Amino acid sequence: MTVRVRFAPSPTGYLHIGGARTALYNYLYAKATGGTFILRIEDTDLERSKSEYETLQIDDLKWLGIFHDEGPDKPGKFGPYRQSERLEIYMKYANLLIEQGKAYYDFCTEEELEAMKEKAAAEGRDPIYQGKWKDPAFHAEALQKIAAGEKPAIRFRAPKKAYTLNDKVKGSVTYPEGMVGDFVIVRSNGLPVYNYCCVVDDMLMEITHVIRGEDHLNNTVRQLMIYEALNSKIPEFAHVSLLIGHDRQKLSKRHGATSVNLYRNEHYLPEAMCNYLCLLGWSHPEERDIFNKEDLFKVFSLDRFSAHAAMYDLEKLKWVNGEHLKKMSTIDLITLIEKEPETEFFSKQSQDWKNACVELLKKYASFVTDFPKLVNELILNENPEMTDPLKEIMAWETTPKILSFIKEKVDSVESEFVTEAELNSWMESVKKDMGVKGKPLFMGVRAALTGHDHGPDLKFLIPLTPVTILRNRVHQLSK
Ligand code: GLU
Questions:
Q1: Whether the CB of 212 sits within 6 Å of ligand 1
Q2: How far is CA 315 from each of CA 29, 137, 276, 295, 324, rounded to the nearest angstrom?
């Protein structure tokens, strides 16, 4: 059996973190099994669906590196891939269900349905449809009404039996008899509903595995009924766990950014996003936290999902981003940094300087945007802030002597940068000629040259700092 999986977003908003995770799992499963990944646009809610959202969602998927094999922009033999273009197909199967008595026309008005619900509530019963149209004896009357131009809904006759689902994540799930009553599959305005279209499409698109969020578990019983009524094969289901925030409530905007485009704007790395999203409810067979999509193509399987809710943790995502950043090649990082604003100084430097700078600073960076900030703070800052730790070092007896020695040295440098050898010789002089050793030596020289009490290794940092800057800084500190 060749695996065919799908991601079926509704284009009613931006691509959500949860949707991206679902898309990723489907994509990975197709890649891991040599299967096909389909993108289907579920746009039968004509009022809320917008083609701009479809475009934006596809664009975000591409940014994440999640590529579909078939979809509205990649026609295949199972198209069209937009539900709004498949209405005739849904009507064909609805008519078939009517012919077989598995569905019926329903002319009940909103008021009648509401009254039925109220009556059921008053009698302490579940609000299960009990309209007269359920009775096959009224079929002929229904046809007359249609001939007279009235527009009925089409209601599915829910079989009276229990259903059991063997879910790949949740295990065995039983839906007791009578849990759902007859439900509408095509509204009186001619538009079919999600539970119905989804099954017709999954059947015709030969979907073998449905991997989607746990929030759809309740829909699945209706879908199982429809598969059965259509004599269709039933795909395997994997309902992945809910995403929750720190307060254990369902992930929503109040927990922070929930749409992928916001992370994209914040310069998160797409590889890091995929890595982190994958970890939300799935674990690597070697319990690894950091991996690439390509690593997952070899090991992704449906038996490593967790049935527990997954907590969305922005701090962990940032950490994962930093880890991916550190794994990037220096050359790729330089290219990304130069696309950032305020990197004129960086861009003007030699290739050797850029390489050394990126190598030195990447351990302090979680985001590409951190590089220009780090360059400003650690290399270009001419006016050191007199923090308490810096004041303390300045107050040591040895520091003023070191400072005036360094000032003299820096003033006499004629080249654009100090070399590591020059810096070493200054250190040696402080040690030998002034007799300063250990902490007072290292901290004193650091404070004099950088205006910081801690930071990257001086022998790498100072040769990256233009002498003009060092000079201004040392003069500033000597005041
Ligand atoms: N359009 C549905 C959604 O966006 C798809 C659910 C499914 O995968 O069956 O939630």
A1: yes
A2: 27, 63, 11, 23, 14
Question: Ligand 1 in contact with 216 (CB < 6 A)?
Answer: yes
133 alpha carbon – ligand 1 mean position (Å): 30
At 67-125, the pLDDT tens digits run 999 999 998 999 999 999 999 999 999 999 999 999 999 999 999 999 999 998 899 88
C-beta 197 within 6 A of ligand 1 = no
Contacts of 121 (CB under 8 A, 6+ apart): 127
> Is 253 part of the annotated catalytic residue set?
yes
- Reference 246, options 319, 313, 315; nearest CA is 313
The half-sphere exposure of 401 on its side-chain side, counting CA atoms within 13 A, is 13
Query: For the chain, what are the domain ranges?
Result: 1-70+241-327, 89-186, 334-478
The Å distance, Cα 65 to ligand 1 centre, comes to: 21
| Centre of ligand 1 from the C-alpha of residue 41, in Å | 9
pLDDT digits (tens, 9 = 90+) for 47-71: 999 999 999 999 999 999 999 999 9
- Residue with CA closest to ligand 1 atom 10: 9
- State pTM to two decimals: 0.91
Question: What's the CATH superfamily of 1-70+241-327?
Answer: HUPs (3.40.50.620)
Q: Which of 253, 339, 348, 479 is catalytic?
A: 253
Q: Which amino acid is at 350?
A: S
CATH classification code of 89-186: 3.90.800.10
